[in-house]
Design brief:
The complex is a heterodimer of chains A (about 300) and B (about 290). Chain A has 2 domains: about 45 residues; about 220 residues, MetI-like (MetI-like fold, Orthogonal Bundle). Chain A contains 13 helices and 2 strands; from the N terminus they run H-H-H-E-E-H-H-H-H-H-H-H-H-H-H. In chain A, strand 1 and strand 2 form a beta hairpin. With about 300 residues, chain A is mostly helical. Classes of the chains: A mainly alpha (about 300), B mainly alpha (about 290). The interface between A and B is large, with 86 and 85 residues.
């Protein structure tokens, strides 16, 4: 009896230790996220002893290797926002409509084929999409539109759209599935057609999930590197047309980091650009987090 | 009567038109995938032969094969999964088996979600500043694997959590009812039942790590190394970086086009192969449950 109780205590202590172990491992993600922030700032902040934050963010000229250098990333920010917005114009309708097709109108057999296709599209390595856009799409655009270069804002947005469609599609699909069946049945029973049910009931009920999907898709597009590095054209200027070459933030970082001397002003400026890029994606993610928590569909009563 | 039936017909027609649009969007995805794969296969297959797969590059990378890149990519993605799998599975066990709802759990979840959203090039910067410089690993397989491991961590956590969640609670209750402790239950009952799902996640993690370019640009990959790696502190070549370099920075961009297509084809065969294994495996699992 006595022995039994002791092992019981030992067991409890061991269980508590194991539980604590898993808890500490689960903190890894937050720790890494914190380390990312710390090291980005650590390597990025020194540039602000040379350039003011305002001049860095809103300076019109990015000539980091000139003498004296110009560290204004405004054209890079505008380029990032432009490719993201343009790709969203393509990817939002495409992604949401594909999700609606999968969830509401496709037969079970077709679904079994289309879901893997969307997953494979998501699995395409970005460098392969970049390569494809560079050697196939760019010459094609250049020829049919008669423009000086096929490596431009439009091409990059198009390729980015295909990278964010799978994200938008799969999260939207989950959102559509989570709409309670009663709502759908009630609408159909009142004589609404399937489309009317989708437009008036299912879409409004899954709107928060679809918004989350769209924001995460855009977050993926703004942070995507290889596609914009290889296809956007690389000119650090404010675009005046959608067929102008641009240089979004990730492209600038990836292209110049190898050449920037270690801990030079240029190196610091690239890290500071990384901070700005990280801030954008963090903002997108926090917004989507907020929407999905605040407007979560609970049962059939909250429509 | 007539009027209402024509209205009904109009409503039906609208529905048909809109469902047609839905079908078209779904088809566009398929077409896009087909077009990409078609061009890579049609222009890449000629480059692929035994020499291409088993020889290092020669003549300033205009001839020869891509063996070092294949080896490098395998090293990096396996290294990444060695880092991410234990941490990811343990995190998922905490989240699904131990954690109680509350502020702490929410904070951990926000951390994971935001880690999943960090741009790949920012992972590259982090890897450079933290692993390469601060921990003095230098540009190496080790630094690259750790960077890729951190990047795949959210993928592994997500997949493992889903696998754990799909284990019915009756399993846990039966084990606890027999007097097993929580850990014994997890170790002997829950984990074995969740293992196939976790493995699927691991395969997807490897495929994700194999295709990433930006995180290894500053941490592991180089234009050219004459020999295969001998230690984890060596810098290496990798398939995605090789495609990028040949396509944008080589001196003979046009002359090496067939090598670029060939390398891209090898990369997507690798990535799609892993994905198809995961997709088929998962479909089987779902049928069994």
């Amino acid at each position: 009896m006595k022995k039994n109780r002791q092992t019981g205590k030992g067991r409890q202590r061991r269980e508590r230790a194991i539980s604590f172990f898993f808890f500490s491992v689960a903190l890894t993600s937050i720790t890494i996220l914190t380390l990312i922030v710390v090291f980005l700032f650590w390597e990025g902040l020194p540039i602000f002893s040379k350039v003011s934050v305002y001049d860095f963010l809103f300076g019109q000229y990015w000539y980091p290797t000139d003498d004296p250098p110009d560290f204004g990333i405004f054209p890079l920010i505008v380029a990032s926002l432009a490719v993201t917005a343009m790709s969203a114009v393509i990817s939002i309708p495409l992604g949401v409509m594909t999700a609606l097709y999968l969830a509401e109108s496709a037969s079970a057999r077709l679904r079994e084929w289309i879901k893997p296709i969307v997953e494979l599209l998501a699995a395409l390595p970005s460098v392969v999409i970049g390569f494809f856009g560079m050697v196939i799409v760019a010459p094609f655009l250049q020829e049919i539109l008669d423009i000086p270069t096929g490596l431009n804002l439009f091409n990059a947005s198009l390729m980015l759209a295909f990278m964010s469609v799978p994200t938008i599609c799969s999260i939207s699909e989950d959102a559509i599935y989570s709409v309670p069946l009663e709502l759908k049945e009630a609408s159909l029973a009142l004589g609404a057609t399937q489309w009317e049910t989708i437009a008036r009931v299912i879409l409004p009920a899954s709107l928060s999930g679809i918004s989350t999907a769209i924001i995460l898709g855009m977050s993926r597009a703004i942070g995507e590197t290889m596609v914009v590095l290889m296809i956007a054209g690389g000119a650090a200027q404010l675009p005046s047309s959608i067929f102008d070459p641009v240089r979004p933030m990730p492209a600038s970082i990836a292209a110049e980091m190898a050449e920037a001397p270690f801990r030079s002003d240029h190196y610091y400026a690239l890290f500071a650009t990384g901070v700005v890029l990280f801030a954008f994606t963090l903002l997108f993610n926090l917004i989507s987090e907020h929407i999905s928590n605040k407007y979560r569909q609970v049962g059939a009563a909250t429509l | 009567m007539n009027k209402s039936s024509s209205l009904l017909r109009r409503r039906k027609l609208i529905q048909i038109a809109i469902f047609g649009l839905f079908r078209l969007s779904a088809a566009i995805n398929g077409i896009a995938l087909l077009v990409v794969v078609y061009f890579l296969v049609a222009r890449g297959w000629r480059a692929i032969n035994w020499t291409f797969l088993t020889q290092p590059p020669r003549e300033a990378m205009t001839e020869g094969g891509i063996l070092p890149c294949i080896v490098g990519t395998l090293c990096l993605s396996l290294g990444a999964i060695l880092v991410a799998l234990p941490i990811g599975v343990a995190s998922a066990i905490y989240l699904n088996e131990y954690a109680r709802p509350g502020r702490l759990l929410r904070a951990i979840r926000i951390g994971i979600n935001n880690l999943a959203g960090v741009p790949s090039v920012v992972f590259g910067l982090f890897g450079l500043a933290f692993f390469v410089v601060w921990l003095k690993m230098g540009v190496s397989i080790l630094a690259g694997s750790l960077t890729l491991g951190v990047l795949t961590l959210p993928v592994i956590i997500g997949a493992s959590e889903e696998a754990l969640r799909s284990v019915p609670d009756t399993y846990r209750e039966a084990s606890l009812g027999l007097g097993a402790t929580k850990w014994q239950t997890i170790y002997k009952v829950v984990l074995p039942a969740a293992l196939p799902g976790i493995l699927t996640g691991a395969i997807l993690g490897v495929s994700r790590a194999a295709g990433e370019t930006a995180p290894i640009m500053f941490t592991a990959a180089v234009f050219y190394t004459p020999s295969l790696p001998t230690s984890v502190f060596d810098e290496i070549m990798a398939l995605p970086y090789h495609i990028y370099v040949l396509a944008t920075a080589g001196t003979e961009i046009e002359a090496t086009r067939h090598l670029q297509y060939g390398t891209a084809l090898v990369l997507i065969v690798l990535v799609f192969g892993l994905n198809l294994i995961a997709i088929i495996y998962r479909a089987r699992l779902q049928r069994r449950m």
